Amino acid sequence: MIQFFHVSKRFPGGQAALEDVTFDIDRGQFVFLTGASGAGKTTLLRLIFREEVPSDGQIVVNGRNVASVPPSKIPYLRRTIGVVFQDFRLIPRKTVFENVTYLPRVLGLDGKQQRQLAYQALRRVGLAHRLNAFPPQLSGGEQQRVAIARALINEPDILIADEPTGNLDPDLSREILRLFLEVNLRGTTVVLATHDRDTIQRVGRRVLTLDRGRLVSDTTLDGTEPPDLAPARDREAPDEHKAPEEREALGELGKQEAPGGSEAAGDRALPGDRVLPGDREPPGTGSPASTAVPPAGAVPEETPRPAGAPAPPLAEGPP
User: Is residue 174 part of a domain?
Assistant: First the structure.
């Protein structure tokens, strides 16, 4: 699934982020990646989804040599990888629904398909009733769960998380970690970077340890308090038992169907696709806009538009 062969990464100026790193991760494994700040954890993760390329060595992901993938094919590689960031990277002026469905919209899916995928992903993290909320209205734990739903919406083979609990209190951290473990039970390969050794000792699993860019340890821990997990199931009630606020959220989305059918609705502005009073995104925030499909979980910078102005047509991604 993921293989590193004598991988090194050096940045301009000669700074070495990784040195001669070799390991392999089998399909369906849950792996902690740990080490002190500056040990190379983030660089290693960025190499997996081809945000960086190695200076030496080879990286194979899903049978593809990542470094040799031409730029035009990178989007296809990234469709199989979900990424969760420590700082959530949600767009404040977009609803939960719009944040979660960024990738399906880029891929050109119609409105009905977007709603189905968003609802299913948000049910998995227990937030289907918050479809129409804005990120500032959510707690830190809820925002991280939205980020996880966004990464899972395309059912990726691999889920990468870079310090996903670093900004959360201990109780919320356990809740978020449980979500990753449940996702892993469904067969998704999970690589989670953290410097929290206590959590690793408590949960157990395979642990890769980096020290100043070198892989110094590859061990498997039993865990002192492994969580009692059942196979992952939807966290929300069946349709006929949905909470009123969940039915209301779905109803509001259903009203957005365009007269021409669901295909037309996919290109229309959805609830919340507007600039709130005094709410403009600061320039230079977010990831650079691109026509390439990003890894699930990545969000481009949004260009503010005046209140009431129609949403611009969405660019279709690669077929």
Answer: yes
Q: Please answer whether residues 130 and 90 qualify as being in contact, where contact means their C-beta atoms are separated by less than 8 angstroms.
A: no
CATH of the domain at 85: 3.40.50.300
How far is Cα 241 from Cα 247, in angstroms, rounded to an integer?
9
Helices (H) and strands (E) in the chain, counts: 10, 10
Spatial distance between the Cα atoms of 121 and 117, rounded to a whole number of angstroms: 6
- Domain enclosing residue 193, as ranges: 26-49+70-265
pTM of whole model > 0.85?
A: no
Asked whether residue 258 is assigned to any structural domain, the reply reads yes
Distance CA 222, CA 210 (A): 20
Cα 264 to Cα 71: distance, rounded to the nearest angstrom: 31
Residue type, 291: T
Total domain count for the chain?
1
Cα 28 to chain center, whole Å?
17
What whole-number distance in Å separates Cα of residue 151 and Cα of residue 121?
9
Residue at token pair 């190695």: 54
Residue the block writes with tokens 């959530």 = 88
Is 278 domain-assigned? no
First to last CA, the chain: 24
Number of residues assigned to the chain: 319
Q: Which residues make beta-bridge pairs with 30?
A: 190
CA dihedral 307, 308, 313, 317 (to 10 degrees): 50
Pair 54, 65: CB distance under 8 Å: no
Give the C-alpha distances (Å, rounded to integers) separating 35 from 11, 24, 59, 143. 20, 18, 21, 26
**Residue 293 and residue 106 in contact, taking contact as beta carbons nearer than 8 Å:** yes
The Cα–Cα gap between 24 and 146 comes to 30
Q: CA gyration radius for the chain? A: 20
96-108 CB burial, b ≥16 within 10 A, e <16: bbbbbbbbbbbbb
Query: 77-105, pLDDT tens digit by residue?
Result: 888 999 998 788 899 999 999 999 988 88
Confidence of residue 165 (pLDDT cuts 50, 70, 90): confident
Does some domain include residue 292?
no
